[in-house]
Design goal:
This protein is of the alpha+beta class. Helix content is 60%, strand content 12%. The protein has a domain at 18-126. Strands 1, 2, 3, 4 and 5 form a five-stranded mixed β-sheet that branches. Helix 1 packs across helix 3 (96-168). It is rod-shaped and about 125 Å long.
Length: 171
């Protein structure tokens, strides 16, 4: 489910991290590429266009492999495929209709990731800018305090000099 990120109250949207369609497309393409080149298993909960089929013994594996073939799975001849000690170990490509359906989810996840990353960057920049503002305010307050101290010290010195003049050099 896509989360809606709200800017303006606690997090501001900075020009540096505004929505950029080309960056979103790059993130989507990266996710699609990883999906199309990725390999998963029946046990793993992940999205990938390829499936590692590892089953034994051979007499159990073969009917399962044929059933998958009937469902549209194809053998990846460019990947590892072997039968060792009755263990069938091959990589299958999912049927195109499954890939197409899963690519919709991959694109949604990519878009969600892009928005989450963008929000996190804007949140970090908001925090950084607030810290800069607080530091500037503290520096300004310290400067005002020092100026007030200097002014008070100068006024106290003038009063002391006036008292000394009045006592030692009456007019």
């Amino acid at each position: 489910m896509t989360q809606k990120y709200v800017y303006g109250k606690d997090v501001l949207e900075f020009d540096l991290y505004k929505f950029d369609q080309s960056k979103l497309q790059a993130v989507i393409q990266d996710h699609e590429s990883r999906y199309l080149n990725g390999v998963t298993t029946f046990v793993e909960d992940g999205l990938a266009a390829n499936l590692n089929f590892r089953e034994s013994p051979f007499k159990v594996a073969l009917p399962k492999l044929l059933e998958l073939h009937d469902l549209g799975y194809t053998l990846r001849l460019d990947k590892y495929a072997d039968v060792v000690d009755g263990v069938v170990d091959v990589t299958l490509r999912k049927p195109q209709h499954i890939i197409d359906a899963e690519l919709i989810e991959v694109r949604r996840v990519a878009a969600d990731r892009y928005e989450a990353d963008r929000y996190a960057l804007n949140a970090a920049e908001t925090t950084r800018q607030v810290e800069i503002s607080l530091a500037r305010t503290a520096r300004d307050a310290e400067k005002q305090r020092q100026l007030a101290e200097q002014k008070a010290a100068a006024e106290a010195r003038e009063r002391a000099l006036a008292e000394l003049r009045a006592e030692y050099h009456p007019a």
